[in-house]
Amino acid sequence: MTYDKYLIDDIGERRERKNQYILDSIKAEESGGPKIDPQNHPYNQKLKAYEEKKKDLLNKASEKAKNDPNYKIDQKYLRDLYYTRSIANDMLAFYEQNKDLSYDSELDYKLCKLDYEQIPKIIENDLQLKSQLERANNRLEKLTTDEIEKNKKLIEADRDVLKDKFEADNNNLKESFEGGRISKKAFQSEKEQLKQKFKDQNKRLNYRNPEVSLKEEIASIKYKIEKDYKKEMKILEADKAEARRRTPVEVEKTSAYRSIISLPIPGLGQFLNGQWQKGLLFLLGTLFIYLIAIPYALGFGNYQGEGIAGLISLAAGGKRLDRSILFMIEGILAIVFITFSFLIYVLSFKDVRSVEKKEMAGIRPNNFFETKKMLRTDGFPFLITAPALIVIIFIVIVPILTAIMISFTNMDPQHQNKFTWIGLNNYITIAKGQGIAGQAFWHIFAWTIIWTILASTLAIVLGFIFALLVNNERIRGKKFFRTVYLLPWAIPAFITIMFFSIMTSRGGVIAEAINSLFHLSLDIKNNTYQTRATLILLQGWLGHSYIFLLTTGVLQAIPKDLYEAASIDGATGAQRTFKITIPLVLFQIAPMLINQYTFNFNNFSIIYLYNQGGPFNPEVYGNLAGSSDILISYIYKLTMENQYQAIGAAITVFISIILIIISYFGYKNSSAFKEY
């Protein structure tokens, strides 16, 4: 890589180079001449002389500023201002004399000039405010007790007058209301206004007390001193940042070597770029990598495991008390830590390389003020979401990875403490309907699909129909019906489920009533089809409230003009429903309807609470599942009740893939998402 002839500052303006050594190097390269020695080049010698003289003058100016009487004052911020002003006064002429030497010297002049122009104003404003503060304190000290008491008596007398006036106005207002001259609403409004006016006038009376008013004035001046200083310093820093943006930088290098040499130590490159604060942050990342992540991945600091090696071995050949699950979890944590470390390396490398390339192009690295400004604007979303992302990784991603990995092992009742990797055997067993899953898996899977479609569709249809009825203008008692239709959502679902479970049991009120009325001999909870039908009806009732609420909100937002226009065009009620209402409702709530299907696919509570997945039919479903079990309840029985964690994890992965596919295509094809 060679030098470019031109530079670009941070606002995109093209600037000519001032560094004569670089210009001569470009000419020598273009003409094929010998390489120029940077040490002996006259321009570099001038720069060196400038830096040496600058350093010498700064030292002298610093000593002079420290000997100034103003440097002995107590307030540090004011002492620093006097110090900076003194430096600017002494250095401005030197910087102005050399401002055309290089862009760095030009920036020195601009920054010094800003200090020279603005800091005296900041000091002057501060001194004026402190003078006001001193005068206010003096007036407060000179107040006598007699003067204060005299004013208090006058204020109390005025307060009594004010109170009498308030009571009189209040009585007049009350008489107007009782006489029917104003409405109740106007009376209440006027009464509140009178109260507020009375409070405000009372508060203003307090400030007629010189002691109170002076204390308030002193507090206000102190606040203004602090805020004005911060505001003026921010303005100064912003002006300096703008000067940096408009002044390019010239560096005598043609490759981004800092990003390479600092790759093993994140933060080092930032230090080399002069970004100390950012470097400290990345240095914390370096400490995490070399003191936590790598040792943990190698097995140091593990509770039982051996880091990544333990994830491979799963405690095979280990101690008798070693548990494979701990080796697996700690191995996964090691991978997470290594992933974090890799991200730190990548982010540090990209940051250093980006800054270096910009610097070679002419753009100066951000200083601390500019970095803070960037974090408050562009970086704010990342700062806010980063903690949540880290928490999600440990409470969501790690358990998911653990479940996926368990599905590739033989973890079962015989292999609880120590299990091994068996590859895809669990998935093959499920696909073939063999092993512990047996043929029950496909029966349960088929019923899960039927259950999801029928229960969800029933809830959606009921909710939509009830919403249409309640929102019909001819229906009376809408509040009553809304309350009734929302009750299933308001009452905890497990109460409703347990109630119907008892009522539909053999001898239950509902079961006996149906048998008596229709001369049947139903045994709902011991008959597969009757149990399934009851579950579908029960979930339709429980789930319709949510759909009812969503649909009601959408229906109330549909303009009536659409229906009126359709009626004028001769549309029937059914046509208006199918051509206007349903499309508009579906457009708004389609994503929530998809959620209904995915929710019921994994609706464990109603299946287990109603009949624990029964009735049981060992010939078809084996000894672990019932005929009303869906996949999620089957997984519960496999894992929690019978310790077949591996096969349960494999089924979980299978379910997750199905739900992800359904949700993806459902959301992708819904009109609400297509709009965006």
TrEMBL record:
Annotated protein name in UniProt: ABC transporter, permease protein
Entry similarity comment: Belongs to the binding-protein-dependent transport system permease family. MalFG subfamily.
PROSITE patterns: ABC_TM1
Chain coiled-coil ranges: 123-246
Location of this chain's protein in the cell: Cell membrane
Entry keyword annotation includes tRNA processing: no
Membrane-protein topology: Multi-pass membrane protein
Entry keyword set: Cell membrane, Coiled coil, Membrane, Sugar transport, Transmembrane, Transmembrane helix, Transport
GO BP annotations, alphabetical order: maltodextrin transmembrane transport
TM region positions: 280-298, 325-348, 382-408, 444-471, 483-503, 541-559, 580-599, 646-667
Residues in ABC transmembrane type-1 domain copies: 445-666
UniProt cross-references to PANTHER family, sorted A to Z: MALTOSE/MALTODEXTRIN TRANSPORT SYSTEM PERMEASE PROTEIN MALF, MALTOSE_MALTODEXTRIN TRANSPORT SYSTEM PERMEASE PROTEIN MALF
Pfam families: BPD_transp_1
